[in-house]
TrEMBL record:
Domain Deacetylase sirtuin-type: start-end pairs: 103-350
GO cellular component: nuclear speck; nucleolus organizer region; site of double-strand break
Encoding gene (name): SIRT7
Annotated residues for binding of Zn(2+): 216, 219, 246, 249
Protein name: NAD-dependent protein deacetylase sirtuin-7
Length: 421
């Protein structure tokens, strides 16, 4: 074995066999088998050496024997590889950790954020799943997020999404828009809570769709149907028909959800045109509850064609690391509701309470036609418990695994299938 390379002498034997084969113009069957045995033996010895070196590296330097020190010196390439793996694992672990600012530090950061909002000429808010966790809708990459649990081999469950209501953060954003402090909201969320908080349709770009909206793409312009139930029960990746038909032309309706791996092409509720225009005009961007791992892939939202000095100032509220942290003028480590409560107090604005009686979805919704009542089994939104069907009144929140629709199917598609051997 040559010092430092970690390769046994069988490798030299394999090389001799290969040279002999080249000279002879090919390998006989017995020679091929011999070469394969040598290759497999080399790989097994390499794996043994890797495990051995890994065990030694886990020891403190003072606990290593002279023989172990010699082995590390002879296996420089393996040591470098293992140390690189360890650094990458630690870096990934740190990025997944949730960090909370000290209360006094957080208040100071909120004062700075409030000043930035007062001085902003055109403020755009980008929102992610983190603003809806207070409504019992899981996020994706948090400690109990969808992707995190799936990577650990655990099942994903959540309360009935029809029970979710706009959070303090949703209502605060609506008030900021009313006060003309926020000009536009760009959301990754499909839960429809921005719409239900009272934010005008023109002020929202729901880039990944809305679970309450189905559309007819045969009509020009597309005809929208807002419903009071989750329309995605029968839909999935690349399969968007909801099972209902257009009241005007009779064509199949489809949901508006943009799954991972798909490209959003609908005008509404995605509203990409308004999102792009808002980003181009923004001098300040506030990111709330988003890991930004998806939003970072949309260069139109970050004004990348502008020189850095002319790009919007970026403010991020998130408990975990984001790929835009180094670009941010300020990063606030805190829960969105906690930060927004402090922010609204600093701005001297009252946070409106959500009321189902004033929920815009009921006035926007198109009722089902006769014969369509059995086209879904999702629980419908009701203004009060008295309006709910008898079986739904007083029913506790379900925590059963979500099997269908934009949320359930979006989760299950991430589960890796084991290869059949």
């Amino acid at each position: 074995m040559r010092p430092g390379c970690g390769l046994p002498c069988e490798a030299e034997a394999e090389a001799r066999v290969s040279r002999g084969a080249m000279a002879a113009g090919g390998l006989s069957r017995s020679e091929r088998k011999a070469a394969e045995r040598v290759r497999r033996l080399r790989e097994e010895q390499q794996r043994d050496r890797l495990r051995q070196v890994s065990r030694i590296l886990r020891k403190a330097a003072v606990e290593r024997s002279a023989e172990e020190v010699r082995l590390l010196a002879e296996s420089g390439d393996l040591v470098t590889e293992l140390q690189g793996r360890s650094r990458r694992r630690e870096g990934l672990k740190r990025r997944q950790e949730e960090v909370c600012d000290d209360p006094e530090e957080l208040r100071g950061k909120v004062r700075e954020l409030a000043s930035a909002i007062r001085n902003a000429k055109y403020l755009v808010v980008y929102t992610g799943a983190g603003i809806s966790t207070a409504a019992s809708i899981p996020d994706y990459r948090g400690p109990n997020g969808v992707w995190t649990l799936l990577q650990k081999g655990r099942s994903v469950s959540a309360a009935d999404l029809s029970e979710a209501e706009p959070t303090l953060t949703h209502m605060s954003i609506t008030r900021l828009h009313e006060q003309k402090l926020v000009q536009h909201v760009v959301s990754q969320n499909c839960d429809g809570l921005h719409l239900r908080s009272g934010l005008p349709r023109t002020a929202i770009s729901e880039l990944h769709g809305n679970m309450y909206i189905e559309v007819c793409t045969s009509c020009v312009p597309n005809r929208e149907y807002v419903r009071v139930f989750d329309v995605t029960e029968r839909t999935a990746l690349h399969r968007h028909q909801t099972g209902r038909t257009c009241h005007k032309c009779g064509a199949q309706l489809r949901d508006t959800i943009v799954h991972f791996g798909e490209r959003g092409t609908l005008g509404q509720p995605l509203n990409w045109e308004a999102a792009t225009e808002a980003a181009s005009r923004a001098d300040t961007i506030l990111c709330l509850g988003s890991s930004l791992k998806v939003l970072k892939k949309y260069p139109r939202l970050w004004c990348m064609t502008k020189p850095p000095s002319r790009r919007p100032k970026l403010y991020i509220v998130n408990l975990q690391w984001t790929p835009k942290d180094d670009w941010a003028a300020l990063k606030l480590h805190g829960k969105c509701d906690d930060v927004m409560r402090l922010l609204m107090a600093e701005l001297g604005l009252e946070i409106p309470a959500y009321s189902r009686w004033q929920d815009p979805i009921f006035s926007l919704a198109t009722p089902l036609r006769a014969g369509e009542e059995g086209s879904h089994s999702r629980k419908s939104l009701c203004r009060s418990r008295e309006e709910a069907p008898p079986g739904d009144r007083g029913a506790p929140l379900s925590s059963a695994p979500i099997l269908g629709g934009w949320f359930g199917r979006g989760c299950t598609k991430r589960t890796k299938r084991k290869k059949v051997t």
